[in-house]
Q: What sequence folds into this?
C-alpha cells in the first residue's frame, strides 16, 4: 500500500475532525453496494466487478482542483464525477483486468460516474485536457489507485457481458451507484477517519458498518412469506388470482373488473404468489391521486406484513408528511411491528421507491422514465419491485400519460421487473399498447390478444386471458335517465332528499358545483360541497365528514345531498341512494355509477328509500345536435372538461340502451365510446372529433419527447433536468395560494390546530387556474406583513406560493373570496 494515496481528501472534516480520505469514501460506497447486491441473481464475478466499478465512482476526487476546493474553498472548473469518466472511459488496464468488452465498458463507466443524478455531457475530445488539469501528482496516483482497489476484488470479471446487455444494465448500475453513494456518504454511519489503516483493513471496517447501516436505512431487503392474506370467501376475480398459472420471467397481469369487485385484494393475492415465485422482492403501489394513495397506505399497512418478513413501508407524494398514519408509522405509534419505516427512507420521497413496499402517486413511478434528475435511481428502486398500477384506465386515457406508462412498463420489464395493472374501464387497444410495451422491454414475442372477455385476468405468456365469472352485481342493473338541465336535477334531488335518500350530484367543473349548491339551497336543501379548490385542511375535513356520513358504515346520511366534482370518482369509498351526474365520457360515468348502491351488504334493497338504482344524467338530447355548442346549452364550465365527441357518443349509446348492466356489458359500453370501433359523430361535431384526434397525437408526441431514451443507455439517453421541467401530467397551468388570517396584526396560516407551523402552511394551500388568478389584483408579496411571514421560507417556495390573507368575510382581493364551506370562488 502506497500511503500517499490516502492524502487525497474525499470529505472535509466535521467540527474540526479529520478529513476523510477519498479512497476510504470510495470503499464505504463499495461496501454498501456489496450489501445491496446480495439479493441480485447475477453471477458472482459480475457482482464483484460492479462493486469494483462503484468503488471507482469518485476517482475524480483524486485531483488538484478537488483537493483545493476541500482545503481552500476554491471553485472547481471540472466536476469531480465528470473527471471520473475522463479517467476511466478507455482505461486499457482496467478493461483487461475485468476481461471486459470495450463497448460494454463504455456503457458502464458513465453510469458509475454519473452518480449525482445525471450523466456527464462533456465531449470526449476534452478528456485529455480535463485529465491534465488534475495535475501531475494525480496523473501518477490514478493508475495506482485503480490497481490498489482492483486487488481487493480479485474475482471481479465482466467476461460474457456484451454491449447490448451492458447498455441495458447501465441504468440499473447508475441507480445502484447513487443509492450506495447516498448511504455511504452518511457521516454518522461512515464517520471521517484519519488515514491510519491499509485499504484491506479499512474495507473490513466499512463492510462492518454497511452490515449495520444498510438495514438501518431500510433497504437491506426482506423475504416473501406464504400464508393466507384474507379470511373472507374469495370473489371470482380473487379466486382467479389465487389459481392462475404464472409464466416464467418478467410477468405482466391485467385485472379487469367492475368498481367494487375486490380488484385490490385480487392484486395482493396475485402479488404474493409472484413474490414467492421470485418475480420481485417488494411492491410499489402506483395510485392516481394523493387521496387514493393515502387510502391505499392504510389498507396495505394491514396486509403487507403477511406478504413479506418485516418490510419497510413508505408513502410517496408531495403531501406525505401530512399523513397521520404515515407519521404514526415513522414514530412507531402504529399498532403492529409487522411493518416499519426508517428515518432515512422517510426523509426524501425519491427514496420511497427504495423501500420494500412503497405506496404513492403514479407520478413517483413515471419520473423513473422522465428526462429528470435521478430517474435512474427511481428505476433501480422499482427494478426489484412488483409494480401495481391502480386505475390504469385513468392514465391510459390521457395520451401524454399513456406514453409515460408504456415507457415505464418497457423499462421496468427490461430491468427484470413485473407489473400488475388494475382497471374497470380499459379499452382493448390501450391494453394492447401496454402489453406490447412490456413485451418489448422483456424481449418477449407475445401475441397481442384482444379477447373481449370481461371480467378477465389477462397474463400474457401464460394461457389465454382467463375469463372470470361475471357475477351479477348485487345492486342489479342501473337504469339511466336523462335530465334536461340543472333545474330539473335540483328538483329531483330536492324531492329525493325530502324522501330520506342519500344523494349526490357529480359535476364536471368546480364553478358549476358551487352553482348547484346555490340551486339546492334555494329549494331548502342544505347541501354540502366537495371539490379540488378547497384549502387542504378544509378538503381533509370535508372528506372525513362525508366518509362518516356516506361511507360503508356512515351515519346521518338520510336526506343529505353532496355536490362534488370528479374527486368522488375513485378517491373516496362512498355509497349513495340517488345519483345525478353531468354528462361525462362513458368511462367516467361507469366510475361514478360505482358509488351508487355500493355497499349492498350494509344497505340491501329493502332498506333503500328508492326502489332501484338509477343514474340521472344532465344532458341535452343526443338526437338533436344543431351545432358544435350542443352541450353548452345545458352545461356551463363542465362542457369544456372532456372531448365533445366522446360526450356525444356516451349520450347517444347510454340513452338508447337506458341502462348499465355491470359487469356483463361494460366492455361493450367502453369499446363503443373509447375503442377503435366508435361510431361516427354528427357532421356538426366533425371538427371537434378531429381536434380530439389531433390533440391525442400531440400529447403522445410530447410524451415521447419528455421520456428518456432507454435503448441508448445511460450516457446518451438520460438527462438531468429538475422534476418540474418535465411534468408527469399535462393540463392548464395552476398557481398555488397559501391562505392566511390576521390575528392581532400578525399573519397566521388559515389551517389551525396541531402540527408544526410549516405543516399548517402546507395545509393552507389551494391551487387554481393560473390564467384566471393572474388577472386579479392578488396581494403584494412585498407587503411588510407578507414579507415578514415568508422571510425564512426557501427561495423556491417563495417563488412558487402566493400568500393570500383573507378578511373576516373571506375576501382576498377584488373578485376573489374564500370560505370553508364553498372554497375558493370568483365573485
A:
Amino acid at each position: 500500500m502506497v500511503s500517499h494515496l490516502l492524502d487525497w481528501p474525499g470529505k472535509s472534516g466535521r467540527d474540526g475532525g479529520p478529513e476523510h480520505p477519498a479512497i476510504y469514501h470510495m470503499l464505504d460506497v463499495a461496501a454498501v453496494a456489496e450489501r445491496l447486491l446480495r439479493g441480485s441473481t447475477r453471477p458472482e464475478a459480475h457482482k464483484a466487478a460492479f462493486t469494483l466499478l462503484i468503488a471507482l465512482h469518485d476517482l475524480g476526487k483524486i485531483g488538484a482542483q478537488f483537493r483545493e476546493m476541500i482545503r481552500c474553498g476554491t471553485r472547481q472548473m471540472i466536476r469531480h464525477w465528470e473527471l471520473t469518466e475522463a479517467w476511466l472511459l478507455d482505461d486499457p488496464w482496467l478493461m483487461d483486468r475485468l476481461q471486459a468488452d470495450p463497448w460494454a465498458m463504455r456503457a458502464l463507466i458513465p453510469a458509475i460516474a454519473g452518480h449525482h443524478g445525471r450523466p456527464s455531457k462533456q465531449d470526449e475530445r476534452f478528456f485529455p485536457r480535463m485529465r491534465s488539469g488534475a495535475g501531475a501528482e494525480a496523473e501518477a496516483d490514478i493508475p495506482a489507485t485503480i490497481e490498489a482497489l482492483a486487488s481487493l476484488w480479485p474475482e471481479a470479471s465482466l467476461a460474457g457481458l456484451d454491449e447490448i446487455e451492458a447498455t441495458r444494465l447501465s441504468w440499473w448500475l447508475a441507480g445502484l451507484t447513487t443509492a450506495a453513494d447516498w448511504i455511504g456518504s452518511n457521516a454518522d454511519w461512515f464517520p471521517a477517519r484519519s488515514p491510519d489503516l491499509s485499504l484491506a483493513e479499512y474495507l473490513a471496517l466499512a463492510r462492518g458498518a454497511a452490515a449495520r447501516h444498510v438495514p438501518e436505512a431500510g433497504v437491506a431487503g426482506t423475504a416473501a412469506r406464504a400464508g393466507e392474506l384474507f379470511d373472507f370467501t374469495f370473489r371470482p376475480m380473487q379466486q382467479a388470482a389465487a389459481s392462475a398459472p404464472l409464466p416464467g420471467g418478467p410477468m405482466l397481469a391485467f385485472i379487469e373488473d367492475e368498481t367494487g369487485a375486490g380488484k385490490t385484494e385480487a392484486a395482493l393475492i396475485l402479488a404474493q404468489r409472484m413474490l414467492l415465485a421470485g418475480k420481485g422482492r417488494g411492491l410499489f403501489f402506483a395510485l392516481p391521486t394523493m387521496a387514493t394513495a393515502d387510502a391505499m397506505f392504510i389498507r396495505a399497512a394491514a396486509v403487507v406484513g403477511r406478504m413479506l418478513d418485516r418490510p419497510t413501508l413508505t408513502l410517496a407524494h408531495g403531501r406525505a408528511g401530512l399523513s397521520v398514519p404515515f407519521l404514526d408509522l415513522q414514530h412507531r405509534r402504529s399498532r403492529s411491528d409487522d411493518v416499519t419505516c426508517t428515518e432515512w427512507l422517510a426523509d426524501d420521497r425519491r427514496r420511497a421507491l427504495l423501500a420494500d413496499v412503497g405506496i404513492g402517486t403514479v407520478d413517483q413511478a413515471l419520473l423513473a422514465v422522465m428526462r429528470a434528475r435521478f430517474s435512474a435511481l427511481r428505476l433501480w428502486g422499482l427494478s426489484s419491485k412488483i409494480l401495481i398500477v391502480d386505475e390504469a384506465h385513468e392514465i391510459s386515457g390521457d395520451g401524454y400519460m399513456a406514453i409515460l406508462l408504456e415507457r415505464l412498463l418497457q423499462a421496468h420489464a427490461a430491468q427484470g421487473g413485473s407489473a400488475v395493472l388494475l382497471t374497470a374501464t380499459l379499452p382493448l387497444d390501450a391494453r394492447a399498447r401496454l402489453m406490447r410495451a412490456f413485451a418489448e422491454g422483456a424481449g418477449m414475442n407475445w401475441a397481442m390478444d384482444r379477447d373481449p372477455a370481461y371480467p378477465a385476468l389477462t397474463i400474457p405468456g401464460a394461457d389465454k386471458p382467463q375469463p372470470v365469472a361475471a357475477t351479477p352485481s348485487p345492486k342489479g342493473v342501473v337504469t339511466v335517465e336523462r335530465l334536461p338541465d340543472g333545474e330539473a336535477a335540483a328538483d329531483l334531488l330536492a324531492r329525493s332528499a325530502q324522501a330520506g335518500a342519500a344523494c349526490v350530484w357529480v359535476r364536471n367543473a368546480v364553478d358549476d358545483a358551487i352553482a348547484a349548491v346555490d340551486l339546492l339551497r334555494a329549494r331548502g336543501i342544505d347541501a354540502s360541497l366537495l371539490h379540488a379548490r378547497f384549502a387542504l385542511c378544509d378538503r381533509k375535513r370535508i372528506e372525513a365528514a362525508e366518509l362518516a356520513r356516506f361511507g360503508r358504515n356512515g351515519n346521518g346520511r338520510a336526506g343529505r345531498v353532496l355536490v362534488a366534482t370528479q374527486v368522488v370518482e375513485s378517491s373516496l369509498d362512498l355509497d349513495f341512494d340517488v345519483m345525478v351526474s353531468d354528462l361525462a365520457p362513458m368511462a367516467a360515468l361507469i366510475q361514478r355509477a360505482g358509488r351508487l348502491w355500493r355497499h349492498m351488504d350494509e344497505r340491501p334493497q329493502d332498506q333503500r328509500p328508492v326502489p332501484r338504482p338509477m343514474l340521472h344524467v344532465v344532458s341535452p338530447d343526443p338526437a338533436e345536435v344543431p351545432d358544435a355548442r350542443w352541450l353548452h346549452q345545458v352545461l356551463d364550465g363542465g362542457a369544456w372538461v372532456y372531448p365533445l365527441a366522446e360526450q356525444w357518443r356516451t349520450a347517444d349509446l347510454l340513452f338508447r340502451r337506458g341502462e348499465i348492466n355491470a359487469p356483463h356489458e361494460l366492455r361493450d359500453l367502453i369499446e363503443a365510446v373509447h375503442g377503435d370501433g366508435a361510431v361516427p359523430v354528427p357532421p356538426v361535431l366533425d371538427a371537434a372529433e378531429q381536434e380530439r384526434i389531433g390533440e391525442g397525437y400531440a400529447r403522445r408526441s410530447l410524451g415521447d419527447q419528455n421520456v428518456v431514451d432507454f435503448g441508448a443507455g445511460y450516457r446518451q439517453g438520460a438527462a438531468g433536468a429538475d422534476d418540474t421541467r418535465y411534468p408527469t401530467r399535462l393540463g392548464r397551468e395552476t398557481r398555488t395560494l397559501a391562505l392566511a388570517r390576521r390575528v392581532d396584526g400578525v399573519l397566521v396560516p388559515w389551517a389551525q390546530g396541531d402540527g408544526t407551523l410549516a405543516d399548517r402552511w402546507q395545509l393552507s394551500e389551494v391551487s387554481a387556474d393560473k390564467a384566471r388568478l393572474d388577472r386579479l389584483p392578488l396581494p403584494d408579496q412585498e407587503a411588510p406583513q407578507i414579507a415578514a411571514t415568508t422571510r425564512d421560507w426557501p427561495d423556491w417556495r417563495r417563488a412558487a406560493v402566493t400568500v393570500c390573507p383573507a378578511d373576516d368575510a373571506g375576501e382576498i382581493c377584488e373578485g376573489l373570496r374564500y370560505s370553508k364551506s364553498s372554497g375558493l370562488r370568483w365573485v
Residues 478-662 form a domain with the Rossmann fold fold (CATH 3.40.50.300). The mean pLDDT is 92. The CA atoms of residues 512 and 636 lie 7 Å apart. The radius of gyration is 29 Å.
